């Protein structure tokens, strides 16, 4: 029997202790650029995210339904009196240093520090008085698992910079959407990953025991853009099992950008600002129009995925809002429909959007064969993770079945995460 490998989240106290200790050993009074005493101004953290449904819809002004993971990235930071950024990570051997005045969109910012310095750059571009800082990072968000490890870094630094430079942007969703935009710009313009804002929004705006319904139509007020939806799975006798397939996940290798460009091209052919303007009732006519202009069939399939995925997300959000069960017992009809929507989402991502890989397909198939109510790829795809909606007493059997299936296929052993909906980015100490 294959034994599942579980990746537990740190407690908040453990995360704080880790980065405080790392800061003390990294920054001390023999610094070449000025004395520091090894004590940070504070500790902040931000979660990774898991998307229940709504994939590749954010950059099409569609709907998404994420929750925050209990797995978080922790930052200890001290502001400086100049524009120098010095950062170190427990996950890398080499520290990273730059000057904020040397960072600009379209420039060459190499290394993982682009995600950090990019947030400071974006806030400065928006007119906020952000200067240099010394900081360290440690994280239990799995890297490369399509669980938004990069957004967790960006958002942890965003709340830290808001606090230490007195920007006052963390107190409500209006301010936090400013930080979301800064984190997104860091990823798009400095790190070079063309993401649509889902990951940063989830990390900055989610809440415990809540899913977050995000509506990416242009120009919406924060209250209409992000709506909290109760998502207490334990009360429904259910769990959300996250499976890291260990198939490498990258958003800067061109595939993600190709999908986004295809959607923009299709919208142009259809004469709409975004594919959100195409509803289910309009889908057949839109596909016929694309046939008439003789586009490749793949373009039609991309449109079909986006339109149907937005409709699935709206329906699943309403199911979640109504509750999937009570007193530890699932509502069988509601849970079955939720599972069916998740399954349809995965099929669409596999066949129409073509972003799954053999490992994620196997994780979904093995989960369902072992009794999961529903399963799907989560995140941008081309590797990464899947999720499975399972009854509370079926978590271990489903994990064991998936681990065995990977062993039989000769794949690298997957890892498993428990994913109760958790808190957004904020200050820890």
TrEMBL record:
Domain GHMP kinase N-terminal residues, every copy: 115-205
Keyword Plastid assigned: no
Highest taxon of the lineage: Bacteria
Cellular component GO terms, alphabetical: cytosol
GO molecular function: ATP binding; galactokinase activity; metal ion binding
Kinase recorded as keyword: yes
InterPro entries to which the protein is assigned, alphabetical: Galactokinase (IPR000705), Galactokinase_CS (IPR019741), GalKase_N (IPR019539), GHMP_kinase_C_dom (IPR013750), GHMP_kinase_C_sf (IPR036554), GHMP_kinase_N_dom (IPR006204), Mevalonate/galactokinase (IPR006206), Ribosomal_Su5_D2-typ_SF (IPR020568)
A Gene Ontology biological process term: galactose metabolic process
Top EC class for this record: transferase
Keyword list, A-Z: ATP-binding, Carbohydrate metabolism, Galactose metabolism, Kinase, Magnesium, Metal-binding, Nucleotide-binding, Transferase
The GHMP kinase C-terminal domain, residue ranges: 336-407
Pfam family, one: GalKase_gal_bdg
Domain Galactokinase N-terminal: 39-78
EC number: 2.7.1.6
Annotated PANTHER family: GALACTOKINASE-RELATED, MEVALONATE KINASE/GALACTOKINASE
Protein family: Belongs to the GHMP kinase family. GalK subfamily.
Annotated protein name in UniProt: Galactokinase
């Amino acid at each position: 029997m294959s034994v599942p490998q579980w990746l537990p989240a740190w407690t908040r106290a453990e995360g704080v202790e880790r980065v405080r200790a790392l800061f003390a050993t990294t920054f001390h009074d023999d610094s070449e650029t000025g004395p520091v005493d090894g004590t940070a101004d504070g500790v902040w953290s931000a979660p990774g995210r898991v998307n229940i449904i709504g994939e590749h819809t954010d950059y099409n002004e569609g709907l998404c339904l994420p929750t925050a993971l209990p797995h978080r990235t922790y930052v200890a930071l001290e502001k400086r009196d100049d524009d120098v950024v010095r950062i170190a990570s427990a996950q890398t051997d080499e520290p990273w240093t730059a000057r904020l005045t040397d960072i600009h969109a379209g420039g060459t910012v190499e290394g993982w520090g682009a995600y950090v310095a990019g947030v400071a750059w974006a806030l400065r571009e928006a007119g906020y008085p952000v200067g240099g800082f010394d900081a360290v990072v440690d994280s239990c968000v799995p890297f490369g698992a399509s669980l938004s490890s990069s957004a967790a870094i960006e958002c942890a630094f965003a709340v830290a910079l808001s606090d230490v430079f007195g920007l006052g942007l963390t107190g409500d969703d209006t301010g936090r959407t400013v930080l979301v935009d800064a984190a997104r710009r860091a990823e798009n313009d400095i790190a070079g990953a063309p993401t649509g804002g889902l990951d940063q929004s989830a990390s900055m705006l989610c809440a415990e025991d809540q899913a977050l319904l995000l509506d990416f139509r242009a120009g919406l007020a924060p209250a209409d853009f992000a709506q909290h939806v109760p998502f207490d799975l334990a009360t429904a006798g259910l769990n959300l099992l996250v499976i890291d397939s260990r198939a490498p996940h990258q958003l800067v290798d061109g595939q993600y950008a190709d999908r986004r460009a295809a959607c923009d091209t299709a919208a142009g052919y259809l004469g709409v600002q975004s594919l959100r303007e195409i509803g289910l009732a309009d889908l057949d006519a839109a596909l016929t129009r694309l046939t008439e202009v003789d586009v490749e069939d793949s373009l039609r399939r991309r449109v079909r995925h986006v339109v149907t995925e937005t409709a699935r997300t709206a329906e699943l959000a309403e199911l979640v809002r109504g509750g999937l069960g009570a007193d530890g017992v699932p509502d069988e009809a509601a849970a079955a429909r939720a599972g069916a929507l998740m399954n349809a989402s995965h099929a669409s991502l596999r066949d129409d959007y073509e972003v799954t890989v053999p490992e994620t397909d196997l994780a979904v198939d093995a989960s369902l064969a072992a009794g999961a109510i529903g399963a799907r790829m989560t995140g941008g795809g081309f590797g990464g993770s899947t999720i499975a909606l399972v009854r509370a007493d079926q978590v271990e059997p489903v994990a064991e079945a998936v681990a065995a299936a990977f062993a039989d296929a000769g794949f690298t052993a997957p890892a498993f995460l428990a994913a109760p909906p958790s808190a957004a980015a904020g200050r820890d100490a």
